[in-house]
Amino acid sequence: MSSDLLSRFSACIRTLTLAFVVRLCFALLFTPAAAGQEPSIPGFPEIPIDATEDQVRQGMALVRAGEKLTPRAWPNGARVAVCLSFDVDNELLWRRTPLPVPLSQGEYGATTGLPRILDLLDRQAIPASFYIPAMSAALDPQMIQDIVRGKRHEIGVHGWMHENLPTVGDAAKEEQLLTQSIEYLTKATGKRPVGFRAPSWAFSQSTLDQILKAGFLYDSSFMAMDEPYELVSRGRKTGMIELPINWIADDYPYYEPQAAGSLPEPQLVLDVYKGEFDVAYQERTLFILTMHPHITGHRSRIAGLEKLIVYMKSKPGVWFATLDQVAEYVKAEEKQAKR
Question: Does one domain contain both 300 and 214?
Answer without folding.
Answer: yes
